[in-house]
Amino acid sequence: AQWKKVHELLIAAARSTEHILENPVPFVLQTSLNDFYVSYELNAYTDKPNMMAKIYSELHQNIQDKFNEAGVEIMSPHYSALRDGNQTTIPEDYLPRSYAPPAFRIFPLENLFRKPDGKAPSNNNT
């Protein structure tokens, strides 16, 4: 499941961040299921509260690195709705040399309500 991969990557990012403690163990909560995305909360501990800005900065860098290395895009639903379908948010140096962007797909309106088997839905009103 994709959510398990997200949890794994967030925890790996926390574990590779300087001044985040091994115990208590970092953990992830899914805080909400929104219309177009899931909200996650990473919980980790430090004994260096005076360094929080630096720790957060490094943690955010590590989150980006771990997600990019795993080929998982971090994006907002706003970007997803506006993108042309061919661009990835993962930097080029993280993509395999053989990466080719997927083709942009346009579906005719008559296919909008088709079932997965390709058949039109039955109309019991006639």
Defining key terms:
126 residues; 3 helices
What is this structure, in a nutshell?
This protein is of the alpha+beta class and 126 residues long. It is 30% helix and 10% strand.
How would you characterize the overall build of this protein?
- The protein is of the alpha+beta class.
- It has one domain: Alpha-Beta Plaits (2-Layer Sandwich).
- It is 30% helix and 10% strand.
- The protein contains three helices and two strands.
- It has a two-stranded antiparallel sheet with strand order 1-2.
- β1 and β2 form a beta hairpin.
- α1 crosses α2.
- It is elongated, with a radius of gyration of 20 Å.
- The N and C termini lie far apart (42 Å).
- The model has no long low-confidence stretch (mean pLDDT 84).
Radius of gyration: 20 Å
Helix-strand pattern: HEEHH
Biggest sheet: strand arrangement: 1-2
In the CATH hierarchy, the third-tier topology is known as Alpha-Beta Plaits
Q: How many structural domains can be distinguished in the coordinates?
A: 1
- Report the portion of residues in β strands: 5-15%
Number of strands: 2
CATH architecture: 2-Layer Sandwich
What summary fits the major beta sheet? 2 strands, antiparallel
Distance between the termini: 42 Å
The low-pLDDT segments are: none
Find the structural class using helix and strand composition.
alpha+beta
Put simply, the count of helices is 3
What is the approximate shape?
elongated
In CATH, what is the class? Answer: Alpha Beta
* Helix content range: 25-40%
- Round the mean pLDDT to the nearest integer and report it: 84
